[in-house]
Design a protein that fits this description.
Chains A, B: Keywords: Aminotransferase, Pyridoxal phosphate, Transferase. Chains A, B: It comes from Shinella lacus. Chains A, B: Residues 38-361 form the Aminotransferase class I/classII large domain. The structure is a homodimer. In chain A, the strands form three sheets. In chain A, strands 2-8-7-6-5-3-4 form a seven-stranded mixed sheet, sandwiched between helices. Chain A contains 14 helices and twelve strands. Chain A is of the alpha/beta class. Chains A and B meet through helix 2, helix 3, helix 5, helix 10 and helix 11 of A and helix 2, helix 3, helix 5, helix 10 and helix 11 of B.
């Protein structure tokens, strides 16, 4: 092996892995072309035209580093949420922020509570800092708040992760339940409340900012990657107490934000009309995916997100055959990684052409999968 | 304090700091406007027009995450350097990659050797992972290779940082010296050879890629932030053995790259004519800065970079007064942080208008500084 001989013991135990294989790698490895990109919970509706225009204009400023304090963006986000910019930390998507939080909280061996089958990138970061994952099964395809709380107490865990709405299942809890859960946690346990899909959730799902802003053991995560259609910009942010927001300044890559991306986020915050419109289109596309599933004899789950998880009624092998089969038609989707969630497939919303491709391919794939049994 | 009560002991000792205060913060804090941005070693000449065009086109694709394997960019870089893409790791600028390397190598208390007054962001990452900085003074405003090597041996250090050409002094060693230094290091010491300013260095400064590619204790760092004029894009890369390049995959934020930035880097690699042209303009601007310094009775140092470090002949207080005074004229520059380097100021290259502002402001500032003594 050609690697340096003295990486840390922890680093030496880690695999060189990627939490999700990208569609580009699938194309390369299988010699297939993606025609409908419906697997990564991106938004095929894209960002607002006003955002694209802002990005094109910002290109000329890209010779400059972006403001390391992210002042303007934090100020705009503060206005948007009715809080202070000192309650906000900006980072390279929620993925980047998750890594920073784990680093701030977890020493090797420390217990971290999450749901079995929950967000793999969070687990990746926990493993990367030597944390010990303690997982709680989903109940009825929803994260189990009571059991998460019990696991936290049993393990005296310094960190717990909860996504509301949930990925990969699309399920959600009402705001009241979320707030009760957050308040019941020991003050020595930090809750990562991942609200990446918050914009597309039904009213009453997302607690008010005020409800948790004063709680030093809660960090709420938001992103421009989903409803705002800016996954490739890599802008996420954490909302928390002053002390918690400042904690990121201890370790983050201060000059790490891409300038065009920051301008994109600023423009996206301005264009409320587009956001309202695209949320409606996302809801309509969810409906469309559900109808396609129903008409093929599958069971779509209710979703508060920009994707629909579909119960295919059998096991992981069966669902995997559907995922792989759709890819042969150029339809890229994904599926949950562990049983019993992996009886499902997960399809992101997208524009009409993508839905048409899905509608055409799915029955063919299901027929072939049935015949090959 | 409103922070979570159970951050790691290490995290609790770290200050919420920024390695460099940004010009935007100086503008906000002092109520001044930057008219010539000559302090961050960016390139006021900007990227190629072809790159700007590629960025504007790429905006439309920003709803998609960037390929987590960075396949296309690594392939293009491999072609450019005549190596395999498996020898390349891509990250969020050299700053981001430095943090990853420190994380892979340093456990709390481990010795890390660097030069006294060398790159502060590297020190920031070392502190962030609890490493123990062991510093070696510059000799004649150049990093001292013999003493770096001696310190490595004395401390049995797993990591040593060396920038060639150097920031903040602009000085450099010939390739032969660099290769000898790298080969003399114990195999249990990883050399970070930071070549951020490699494109602007004289012929014979940068070792051939072949000279070090097989050495498992060397990682060479490159960036699109300097000569390529893409500081705000945040694209850097490390060149090393297969095993070392793959080591980043253990811990990096795989979906962390901004899509428009990656397209910018790809376009920049294509436009060799622009790079040749801009390197000549950078050299001319260095010359201009040196002339301005000379004609004001100051002593510019020779530079292999996109900035000129100027000996102002007195101490840090004197140099600081010049830096602050220039800012009052809207001319943003920086200076080295520690003695004896801090007798100097550091001015980045830039277009004619910026040089004219500098030329106009500097004598006024020097006069005022002299009068105030």
């Amino acid at each position: 092996m050609s690697a340096f001989s003295r990486f840390t013991p922890l680093a030496q135990t880690l695999p060189s892995t990627v939490p999700f294989v990208g569609p580009e790698a699938i194309e390369r490895n299988r010699g297939l072309a993606v025609r409908a990109r419906l697997g990564a919970n991106e938004s095929g509706f894209g960002p607002a035209p006003s955002v694209l225009e802002a990005m094109r204009k910002a290109a000329e400023t890209t010779w400059m580093y972006s403001d390391p304090e992210n002042f303007e963006l934090r100020e705009a986000l503060a206005l948007h949420h009715g809080i202070s910019r000192d309650n906000i930390a900006v980072g390279g998507g929620i993925d980047g922020l998750l890594g920073e939080i784990v680093r701030l909280v977890i020493e090797p061996g420390a217990a971290v509570v999450t749901s079995l089958g929950g967000y793999p990138t969070f687990n990746y970061h926990v493993n990367g800092f030597g944390g010990r994952l303690v997982t709680v099964p989903y109940v009825a395809d929803r994260e189990d708040l009571d059991s998460l709380l019990a696991a936290v107490r049993r393990e005296n865990a310094p960190l717990v992760y909860f996504a509301n709405p949930d990925n990969p299942m699309g399920s959600w809890w009402d705001a009241d339940n979320v707030v009760s859960f957050a308040r019941a946690l020991p003050e020595t346990t930090l809750l990562i409340l991942d609200e990446a899909y918050g914009e597309t959730a039904p009213a009453g799902t997302i607690p008010s900012i005020d409800a948790l802003i004063g709680q030093p053991n809660v960090l709420r995560m938001r992103t421009f990657s989903k409803a705002y259609g800016l996954a490739g910009a890599r802008i996420g942010y954490a909302i928390g107490t002053l002390g918690n927001a400042q904690a990121f300044d201890k370790i983050r890559n201060h000059f790490g934000m891409a300038r065009v991306s920051v301008q994109a986020a600023l423009a996206a915050l301005e264009d409320r009309a587009y956001l309202t419109d695209v949320i409606a289109r996302i809801a309509a596309s969810r409906e469309r995916i559900s109808q396609i599933a129903f008409s093929n004899g599958l069971s779509p789950l209710a979703s508060a997100t920009n994707f629909v998880t579909i119960d295919c009624g059998r096991d992981g092998t069966h669902a995997r055959a559907i995922v792989d089969g759709l890819m042969e038609h150029g339809v890229f989707i994904r599926m949950p990684g562990v049983a019993p969630l992996n009886r499902c497939i997960r399809i992101s919303v997208g524009p009409q052409d993508d839905m048409a491709l899905l509608e055409e391919a799915l029955p063919q794939v299901l027929q072939r999968v049935a015949n090959s049994k």
